[in-house]
What does this fold into?
Amino acid sequence: MADEGSIQFVIRFRGGDFQTWKAAFDEHEPARVKHGATGHWIARSIDDPNEFIGVVEFTSRGGARAYAADVDRLTVQHALMAEGGPHHKTWDEGIHETVAVVRYQQ
It folds into this structure.
């Protein structure tokens, strides 16, 4: 779980072939690391198995912004959006800062 003040690059997408996108995403790990990424996680909607959220954690705002501006990164989006299949594809991304964290005792 993120700590307060941590920076995340968040991608939310629907449609396309997940395995194709994931392969392109995995190939770009060196670019994420170059910009200060420390890790990532991917979640799938339990109500719509074609909807995903990818969260890449960064050490700084500048690193996340540099990654967002890196044109080489667009091949990851292209891997999902350009392949055939349903036309109900969406892609949204943004940079977020964690402002509050609460951990419950078990």
The chain is about 30% helix and 30% strand. Residues 24-47+65-83 form one domain. The mean pLDDT is 87. The CA atoms of residues 36 and 59 lie 6 Å apart.
